[in-house]
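User: Polyketide cyclase, Dyadobacter psychrotolerans:
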Amino acid sequence: MQSPEKTVITVEVTVNIPVEKAWEIWTNPEQIKQWSFASEDWHTPTAENDLRVGGKFSSRMEAKDGSFGFDFWGIYDEVEPETLIAYTLGDQRKVRIIFAADGSKTHITQSFEAEDQNPIEMQKGGWQAIMNNFKKYAESI
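Assistant: Predicted structure for Polyketide cyclase:
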């Protein structure tokens, strides 16, 4: 999974919902818009997802005050329903997400290659915040 000289960062969360529901919330574009942001002053106004090997996903993340925004997108390398998603981001970094069912809970582990613009801890914190948002949203619906 690791490209030459890339640091891999791992974040994880356990969500108190079954894996089928976790998968649906993680992959459905309408649901993605409800949780895929790192803080309350950000949002994801658009999301698209062609969930298949070779398919593309994209979402637009923006500060609510309009001061900054960016497109987050990639191409799927592997898709195993309710188990695994692997993709390559637009900047060629690799991401791997594992969904592990544990009765009525789901443990999600996401590993990604770090980019070299921001400190590792900042990247880990941002991705973990999104995972925590996923948990909060998924357990509330």
